[in-house]
Specification:
The complex is a heterotrimer of chains A (157), B (414) and C (499). Chain A has 157 residues and is α+β, with helices and mostly antiparallel strands. Chain A is built from five helices and eight strands; from the N terminus they run E-H-H-E-E-H-E-E-H-E-E-H-E. In chain B, the strands form seven sheets. Chain B has a five-stranded parallel beta sheet. In chain B, strand 14 (214-219) and strand 15 (224-227) form a beta hairpin. Chain B has 414 residues and is of the alpha/beta class. Chain B has helices spanning 10-22, 44-49, 64-67, 128-137, 151-162, 182-194, 290-304, 373-381, 390-395, 405-412; strands at residues 3-6, 28-32, 70-74, 78-82, 87-90, 95-97, 100-103, 107-109, 122-124, 143-147, 166-171, 198-201, 205-211, 214-219, 224-227, 229-232, 236-238, 254-255, 267-269, 274-277, 284-285, 316-321, 324-330, 339-344, 351-357, 360-367. Helices cover 23% and strands 29% of the residues of chain B. In chain C, helix 11 links the parallel strand 18 (375-379) and strand 19. In chain C, the strands form seven sheets. Chain C has an eight-stranded parallel beta sheet with strand order 9-19-18-16-15-12-11-10. Chain C has a three-stranded mixed beta sheet with strand order 6-20-21, covered by helices on one side. A two-stranded antiparallel sheet of chain C has the order 1-4. Classes of the chains: A alpha+beta (157), B alpha/beta (414), C alpha/beta (499). Chains in contact: A-B, A-C. At the A-B interface, strand 2, strand 3, helix 3, helix 4 and strand 6 of A face helix 7, strand 22, strand 23, helix 8 and helix 10 of B.
Chain lengths: 157, 414, 499
């Protein structure tokens, strides 16, 4: 089971992760120029840089083992993949009620694009996350984690 | 041990998943008077407006119960519980014995007592069946009156308006009183009006009279609203008929502790029928919200399967009307000793209210700018002491980088 | 009267490729790039661009280029633009001109005019991929006579540094460069089994675990010197001078003296760290002897003592004195040697080329019969493995690299180290900038550089038919000069090409 690990001490706040995340989820897959210049309704970044003064780090969905978003989802579109254990939003069933946004303790679920009523979140780009691939300082790394690794704040619930 | 679940909505589904997390083997029987698969009740207004088709109403995939090895008894109404014999007695005479029992019968609409309420053109709006009936009835250009000021009434009114029905919402005091503070209500009311929904605020219906080509709803302020039909959605109450006369303690709903246990060993309750622990007050309260129902059901299910789960719910609601999103959670109406911080735009719909009590966030209301609301929900739920980063909460710049390093690392496992 | 500051470099933004993502805005500590509030476009003002190329490297669409800005010139060969600019700047400021890195003047380099030999027919060359090739190097005083005990182990062998590759990371202090930069070098030195040098900035507590690969420096400011510090490393270096600023001291401005630097240097937070030009206790070779033996006494004769000087006119005689004073290693830094900050005129006009200094010192110590008493380490613009191998052929035991090491970490040689705004997180103490150098990546890259050079050294040695670096040391027959005067060839001790 691989997950994105955050290394706060090396995040340089360049936001290349956000930029590449947008392009990876857009209709011009991974083409930055077309995504930013031609797609008026380009996706929202599923990873955000948390920043205050000297502190910054990238924060994508933690794929919590006890996921508030799944419990809160009104339609049942937010599910956990039984194989990968990833939290996944089935967009065709999502109606954009934003209950997941109200519930997610990490603020890792976003409203997709500008006019869409769909909740979007990190899908690890099918096991090859664009954000990690393009992080210039290895401040986010994609690595194997154990089932029991403490990985999110919701575990005790 | 056989686990029996009465109900077929969020709490029941939560219980199925809760049980199966810990116990893959034991038989589970699910009894429901509904003749169909589980569906998402909040979606009925989307069904009415046509944003969601019938196939997409399912709260879980079609094969959900099969995959989880659940014996389903659809269309079978549970009539009573025999706690001595540990059996559920069905309306059709059948009996189902249980080892553990979850009562997740949900709620039912409050019946409005009003002259003329029996008219055929008065629709309830609570089940998928109601939504289908209404959808069949409505035609573009019709006029409707919606009675009620809660989420259901408003979502019905929105769906009707978008379907081309000229709709008036009759509201006694204020829309979404349990969910929005007056400031947010003001923003929402304006938005609803702008989108063509008429509001009749401050009045109550006193009677409905049917005429040949329509209905008239008379209001306390003397107005008479002519319409083709009326939707009544004035409120809901726990559906606890099943346990009438049984020694299960109830107040407004079935009283349950933090482990979702009733006073009768082996019997649990969850969802709208349950009166469980409120995280903020520590009191027992019915919190008729889907996320709470699911989480209660899941915790109950785990406990039925021998687990050790506890759950306390809280107000948390996200909703949008005509594209305007709103989220609120926790304490919405402050007490005198609370600190309240407001941000609002004069020209736009943006509105943000934060309620702080003893250096902890206890509630918020967000209109339009709702992104990352969950961070605030987390602060409420975890009762995080905000000394040190309060200013960022007030100015709206709060994010994880504002948290003290120790807390941040614990939360994110940096 | 003031002159408007004109850009030295010009940033070009290809608007067909720029996506206004703002990465450049967030990465430029010189605030060249900015987001226009009205148009929401990313724009730039080249005035303060240092050509560090951070924006160019990080721009995700390759939309940026930095060029030298066209300079107004009268075509006057006597008055070059940089001379005119310097006068204008000094007329504005009334101050000394500062710069960073090694001299960038087009002075003739001797390494580039020396060619290496290769075997043809009469003695076979060696393929280092098939046959063993020894690069191991020992630095320290060697005994005149080798005595072995009954087990065959040498008796009374003075302490030695053992290197797997004859390349070490030169002195760069914590203060002049960031802790992450030092961590990178320390970890690379550890993995490649060589040494890095603390410079005069003391040893940060995080670096103590790298002690066995550390050379600790004692300089005129004596920053961070205590007994733990002296004992922590594998060797101690007394710094007398430095190629980029022979004869003058150093000055670390107070704004770079944060908590970490303050604790490590043992000076008050925010105070200027001033290294005097001379050691106030050294005015003769005899004084130097005292310091050398003080350090040896303090560390119980377990560590070789190095003395570092800048390459200056009488370097051979000075080196002889240092050898006789008891030093185990002499480090010589050529006039192209780098620094974080130095007066421009000193850097560009004081000192002599390292090639000549090295040849002169090696010859002198041989002539005096004391060459085995010291190891010679040279530095000052070792740009690649060929420079290293030529230095060894001229007589060096090992070389120091610093600029090359920093380039491996990300430095683009913009020469603005003294501003403290290094966009690559190297020559800065600003925590936001320091973060930009992930020492795990830095260590990997610096170690890669050492390994790459090691491979090249072996290739070149093999080509010469030599299978151990020891056999090349001082073997000037392997060098031939091209385009040099007789006097230069004589000093270098090499023949002209064709001879």
């Amino acid at each position: 089971m691989k997950r994105i690990r955050i290394k706060e001490e090396y995040c340089i706040g360049c936001r290349l992760c956000e930029v590449h995340c947008i392009a990876a989820h857009g209709k011009y897959k991974n083409d930055l120029i077309k995504t930013f210049k031609r797609d008026c309704n380009r996706p929202s970044p599923r990873i955000v840089i948390e920043e205050k003064e000297d502190t910054c780090f990238a924060l994508p969905c933690r794929h919590c083992r006890e996921a508030f978003c799944i419990r809160s989802c009104l339609t049942g579109s937010m599910t956990r993949d039984p194989e990968t254990r990833l939290v996944h939003n089935e967009v065709e069933r999502c109606v954009g009620c934003w209950t997941c946004i109200a519930a997610c303790p990490y603020g890792a679920i976003v409203r997709e694009g500008r006019h869409t009523k769909i909740a979007a979140k990190c899908d690890l780009c099918g096991q090859d996350p664009a954000c990690v691939k393009h992080c210039p300082n290895d401040a986010i790394v994609y690595e194997e984690v154990g089932e029991d690794d403490h990985y999110d704040a919701c575990n005790h619930r | 041990m056989t686990h029996v679940i009465i109900g077929n909505s969020a709490a029941a589904v939560g219980a199925v998943e809760g049980i199966r997390q810990l116990d893959k083997e034991s038989p589970v029987i699910l009894i429901t008077e509904e003749p169909h698969h589980t569906y998402s009740r909040p979606l009925i207004s989307y069904l009415l407006s046509g944003k969601v088709t019938a196939e997409k109403m399912n709260y879980r995939p079609e094969d959900f119960y099969v995959k989880n090895h659940i014996t389903t008894m659809f269309g079978r109404k549970a009539a009573a519980v025999d706690i001595n014999a540990k059996a559920v007695i069905l309306e059709d005479g059948g009996r189902v014995t249980y080892g553990t029992l979850l009562i997740a019968t949900g709620s039912k609409p409050v019946a409005l007592k009003l002259p003329g309420i029996d008219s055929e053109s008065i629709f309830p709006f609570y089940t998928m069946k109601d939504a289908f009936a209404l959808k069949q009835f409505i035609r573009d250009g019709m006029k409707a009156v919606v009675l009620g000021a809660g989420l259901t009434a408003l979502k019905a009114a929105e769906a009707l308006t978008t379907s081309g029905v000229e709709t008036t919402l009759v509201v006694r005091s204020r829309i979404l009183r349990n969910f929005l503070d007056p400031g947010a209500t003001e923003k929402l009311s304006l938005h609803l009006s702008e989108n063509g929904l008429h509001l009749a605020i401050g009045s109550e219906p006193v009677g409905i009279t049917g005429e040949n080509n329509g209905l008239s709803v008379r209001l306390t302020d003397g107005r008479i609203l002519a319409c083709d039909f009326v939707v009544s959605a004035v409120g809901i109450e726990p559906n606890k008929e099943l346990i009438e006369g049984v020694q299960i303690a109830t107040e407004h709903g079935i009283l349950v502790d933090q482990a979702l246990r009733t006073n009768v060993p082996g019997i649990y309750a969850a969802g709208d029928v349950a009166q469980g622990l409120d995280l903020l007050t520590g009191c027992q309260r019915v919190i008729p919200l889907l996320p709470v129902a699911y989480a209660q059901g899941e915790a109950a299910g785990r406990n039925m399967a021998g687990g050790n789960a506890v759950y306390a719910g809280m107000n948390m609601n996200a909703i949008s009307f005509f594209g305007l999103p709103l989220i609120s959670a926790g304490v919405i109406h402050e007490e005198p000793a609370d600190e309240v911080y407001l941000q609002k735009s004069q020209t736009e719909k943006m509105y943000r209210k934060l309620v702080i009590r003893q250096n902890r966030v206890v509630g918020y209301v967000l209109v339009e700018q709702i992104d990352r609301a969950g961070l605030l929900t987390w602060l409420i739920r975890e009762k995080v002491n905000i000394t040190g980063f309060k200013a960022t909460l007030i100015d709206g710049s709060f994010n994880h980088a504002c948290l003290p390093p120790k807390l941040r690392r614990e939360k994110i496992a940096l | 009267m003031g002159f408007t500051k004109r850009p030295t470099f010009r940033v070009e933004r290809d608007s067909c490729r720029c996506i206004d993502c703002g990465v450049c805005v967030r990465q430029c500590a010189n605030e060249v790039h900015y987001l226009d509030i009205d148009t929401k476009e990313v724009l730039c003002d080249s005035t303060n661009c240092s050509n560090c190329r951070r924006c160019v490297e990080l721009c995700p669409t390759g939309a940026l280029a930095v060029w030298g800005a066209p300079q107004e010139t009268s075509g006057n060969a006597a008055w070059a633009v940089h001379d005119i600019r310097a006068i204008q700047a000094q007329a504005n400021s009334g101050g000394i001109l500062l710069t960073g890195m090694g001299s960038d003047r087009p002075m003739p380099g001797y390494f580039d005019r020396m060619m290496l030999n290769a075997s043809q027919v009469t003695n076979p060359s060696i393929d280092p991929l098939r046959e063993p090739m020894e690069l191991r190097t020992f630095l320290g005083r060697k005994p005149t006579v080798l005595q072995l005990d009954d087990k065959g182990k040498p008796v009374d062998l003075p302490p030695q540094l053992e290197l797997d590759v004859p390349i070490m990371f030169s002195a760069m202090s914590f203060g002049s460069i960031s802790l992450n930069a030092i961590k990178s070098l320390a970890a690379a030195a550890e993995s490649e089994n060589t040494y890095y040098n603390t410079g005069e900035g003391g040893l940060h507590r995080d670096l103590y675990p790298f002690g066995k690969n550390t050379i600790t420096q004692v300089a005129s400011g004596r920053f961070g010197v205590n007994i733990d510090y002296l004992n922590a490393g594998a060797a101690i270096e007394i710094k007398i001078g430095q190629g980029a600023k022979p004869g003058i001291g150093g000055h670390l401005p107070g704004e770079k003296v944060g908590q970490g630097v303050s604790e490590t240097r043992m000076i008050p937070l925010g105070s200027d760290a001033i290294s005097p030009a001379p050691h106030h206790d050294i005015y003769s070779i005899e004084d130097l002897t005292q310091l050398i033996f003080s350090l040896k006494e303090a560390t119980e004769y377990t560590k070789p003592i190095s003395v570092k000087i800048a390459a200056v006119h009488n370097v051979a005689a000075i080196a002889s004195g240092i050898a006789r004073a008891g030093a185990d290693i002499i480090a010589i830094d050529g006039y192209r040697g780098g620094t974080g900050a130095t007066p421009l005129r000193i850097r560009d006009h004081v000192g002599i080329p390292i090639e000549l200094a090295l040849a002169a010192v090696d010859s002198r110590l041989r002539d005096e019969g004391i060459r085995q008493e010291v190891s010679i380490v040279v530095g000052g613009s070792m740009r690649h493995s060929a420079d290293v191998i030529k230095a060894i052929a001229l007589g060096a035991d090992a070389v120091y690299i610093a600029t090359a090491a920093l380039i491996s970490l990300g430095c683009h040689v913009c020469q603005k180290c003294y501003t403290g705004k290094c966009n690559w997180g190297i020559a800065t103490q600003n925590p936001q900038l320091v973060k930009r150098l992930n020492p795990e990546i830095g260590a990997r890259r610096a170690a890669n550089l050492l390994r790459a050079w090691k491979h090249e050294l072996k290739e070149m040695l093999g080509g010469m038919g030599i299978n151990a670096v020891e056999s090349l040391r001082g073997n000037r027959l392997m060098l031939r000069g091209v385009g040099m005067m007789d006097s230069e060839l004589r000093i270098l001790g090499i023949k002209a090409a064709g001879e």
